[in-house]
Amino acid sequence: MLKKIHIFYNPLKPEAEKTAKDLDAIFKRAHVHSQYAETDASSDKWLEVPDDTEMLVVLGGDGTFLRAARQVLSKGTPIIGVNFGHLGFLSEFGDIPMQDLADKLLASDYDIEERSVLRAFVEDNGEYYYAINDITLNRSFRANLLYTDIYIGSNLLHSMRADGVIISTPTGSTAYAISAGGAVMDPDIDAFQIVPIAPHSLNSRPHVVSDKEDIILESLDHESFYLHADGRDLVELNPKSKIIISRSPYNLKLVKLNIEGRNFYSILREKLHWGSLDKK
Length: 280
Fold this sequence. Notes:
Mean pLDDT: 92
Distance between the termini: 49 Å
Low-confidence stretches: none
Shape: globular
Largest sheet: 11 strands, antiparallel
Helix content: 10-25%
Structural class: alpha+beta
Strand content: 35-45%
Number of helices: 5
């Protein structure tokens, strides 16, 4: 049985804070050490996640989930998301009573999925950036296009001209990548996806590569450009910069409640409205 749980909530959603208080009370009645806090580390209502925390419960949308997950990736803490947002592929459990959710967690009636995480190394500044969904390069407002050579290991894949490029995990394939024309990827696939953003050539297409290979992006631009990790960590990079993207040594540990009939494909049908055609 779980002994220590940390709850994060989105402070912009009043119902999320109330739910955090309710869950905290449920766990405490079950003699579980529980605490709840906002996700923003600059808030006076933020609390650091202790190293011995056994479960992180996140109340909000996928953005809240990503902010919270960054704080525990290196600790390997399992995370469950409760959706108070819109689509919610990561924070999917918004349609279950909180008492039922707590009962399942306390009874260990769940599985933990290991999801791959991206790591981007920027040679210019020597910094690493981590992303659960995607690493994105975007052109500067001063440039018409982003000029980039894309290598898979030592092999040149494509010399691309576009507004930008997305490197997506299978988890992130239903985020920015799908909006740019990428494919939906099964989360069990050991691969990453390269998706151009508004490419200048019709020959530029999404490409799936093994996550065992490094993806190397070499800028050919004379203007600076930008790197985003999960839509955050906006970093301005120098012209001619080189970025090496690989699979991180850390995995996201995503908690999935055991609910009959609920799986990756049922969630796709629900979120993307891929229901059966009405044959009447």
